[in-house]
Amino acid sequence: MCKVIAIANQKGGVGKTAVASNLSVGLAMNGKKVLVIDADPQGNLTSSLGVDNADELENTLAAFIEREINEEPTDAEEYILHNDEGVDIMPCNIKLAGMDYMIMNALSREHLLDAFVSQVRDEYDYILIDCSPSLNLVTINVLTAVDSVIIPVEASYLSMAGLQQLLGSIGSTKRKLNRKLDVEGIVINKVNTRTNHEKDIIDKLREAYGSQIKVFDTMIPESVRAKECTAYGISIYKHDPRGKVAKAFEELTKEVLAYGC
């Protein structure tokens, strides 16, 4: 049985794409069949997984949504690329940035992405969807299509404020559009535990949310090597396989797998 997970936070710069790309490769390395969907018009997940010239691609998430709105036949396989690290990709590019206006006037406008997920769900163990850092209609489509949400946060007070806002949006979507929607967990990213400031925030975050929501035991450390992965279009497992970030993502993958499909 497939599990569909959004990687989301309404605050930018918290490392959503790094979590989506490295977690997807980690799951594939554990023998799981994985699809990632890039739902951010910046296309960072697409390039992070080695797809060049994303803005020149025709079969992207934006193209699928447009065909759904126009009630044209769609074949999900036409929109899936294959990565040499064992992950399938539905790419995205800047064309998605202008889709909200079209979606606003569509029938069943919150369920356009779900039409794609429904076509491919039986072919995968995990589908991960990387969201943009804004609660637009594309992100609402994502929350309507998924089973759960992983929320990457930084150890900062601003990140904690954004977390509360996102939890409100998830709760509203669950009540109105997707009764099965749940929070998979919070993953603390870009961690530097050498500072007392960050240690204090991490303690406060676990205290504030740990009794209601799972806060993953694994924390992803801050690392220049991790930032370099996007430029090279490879995962941390290829770029720095013996490093602390690769080890952390191995442990996070185990925690996600512990939930099962």
Morphology call: globular
Helix content: 40-55%
The total of beta strands comes to 7
Strand content: 5-15%
3D architecture notes:
The protein is α/β, with parallel strands linked by helices. Helix content is 44%, strand content 15%. It contains 11 helices and 7 strands. The protein has helices at residues 16-29, 44-48, 61-69, 99-104, 112-120, 137-145, 157-176, 196-209, 224-232, 236-239, 244-258; strands at residues 3-7, 34-39, 81-82, 87-90, 126-131, 148-154, 182-189. The chain has a 7-stranded mixed β-sheet with strand order 3-4-2-5-1-6-7, sandwiched between helices. β6 (148-154), α7 and β7 (182-189) form a beta-alpha-beta unit. α1 (16-29) crosses α11 (244-258), α3 crosses α5 and α5 (112-120) packs parallel to α6 (137-145). The protein is globular.
How do you describe this structure in short?
The chain is α/β, with parallel strands linked by helices. The chain has eleven helices and seven strands.
Notable traits:
261 residues; alpha/beta; 11 helices; 15% strand
Secondary structure topology:
Blueprint: E1 3-7, H1 16-29, E2 34-39, H2 44-48, H3 61-69, E3 81-82, E4 87-90, H4 99-104, H5 112-120, E5 126-131, H6 137-145, E6 148-154, H7 157-176, E7 182-189, H8 196-209, H9 224-232, H10 236-239, H11 244-258
Parallel strand pairs: 1-5, 1-6, 2-4, 2-5, 6-7
Antiparallel strand pairs: 3-4
